Give the backbone structure.
Amino acid sequence: MKTKILLAVAAIFALSLFTNSFAQMERMKMREQMRDRIEEKLNLTDSQKAKIEELRVNHQKKMIDLKANLEKKEVELRALRKSDKLNRSDLLKLTKEISEIKNSMAVEMANHHMDIYELLDNNQKQIWRDMKPERGMREGKGFRMHKHCGKD
């Protein structure tokens, strides 16, 4: 009986891992399709595509570091909240550190968008401004394709 229960739990766990992995692959595929549509609408030159890809790689590296720091601080915050040593000073300090990291991520995203925007010619800039936010993109955020992942 215990073996059957363990097998059922293992099967459910494996299925949930597969489902999450599949969903992540689908999101990545959608981002790539969206990126292709945007490049097509903007009619980017090969030179622009190469520069944007270089910017994208550098941006992803920065965002990975920021996201890792954010996650570490969030773990510290959860641990502090469960701790017998919870106090106002430590809680506020961690809360401010988390806010600063989130702010850095937002500034990095805005800089990345402007770096791309500044590579465009006037016609492309007009197309960029006229494009309505597509699925997964927010008004006023340029071509943000996902939240805090740094993978545009």
